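Sanity check

After download, print the first record. It should look like this:
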Amino acid sequence: MFRNMVTSLFKHERIRTTDVKAKELRRWADNLITLAKRGDVHARRQALSIIREKDVVHKLFAEAAQRFGSVSGGYTRIVKLGRRPGDAAPISLIELIYSEEGEKKKIKKKDKVALKKKQIAEKKEPEKKKSEEKKEIESKEKVTEAAEEEKDIVDKEKDVTEEKEAEVKTEFTAEDSDDMLEKQAEAPVESEETESKEPEAKKVEDDAGDSQVKE
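Expected structure tokens:
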């Protein structure tokens, strides 16, 4: 009977029974919890010889160290509920309890999870700011690059126009130089003609003077 009751207690974590059975069941439950806290193979076999379901034994051995901590005893609580209708037997509720260390550990775990979440959020905020700053810097750089490219295009167009103007000027200067050379080439011919005409005129004047003297 107590084997069934202990199995139900560890399976459902609380049961109702009479006061006398509850007090005896507490002794059985404390013994099994100490075995579970040991956790070796021999203790597991002893627990399997009492508890009728293997799943309950595995659950007990898996949770005993965390749930009951380093406390030796006081693993159950008995609450008196009054008398049972019919035979007026005193009824009690027996249930498993958590140790203070286990509760503290749970609270600490929750606090740790909250702290981790806060730390992650704090880490994400500067990363977001950095990403936004990077985007702004990249956009500014793109604008400056576009402006520089436009300037380069304008400068290239200016250079091309200047080169064309220089070519036109060189063509005009070449034509002017050719005209000057032609004029210079024509000028000596005219000077030679004038020089050839001057001695002939002198000869004519001399002949005219000689003829007047003879007369």
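If your output differs, re-run the checksum step. Summary of this record's structure: The mean pLDDT is 78.
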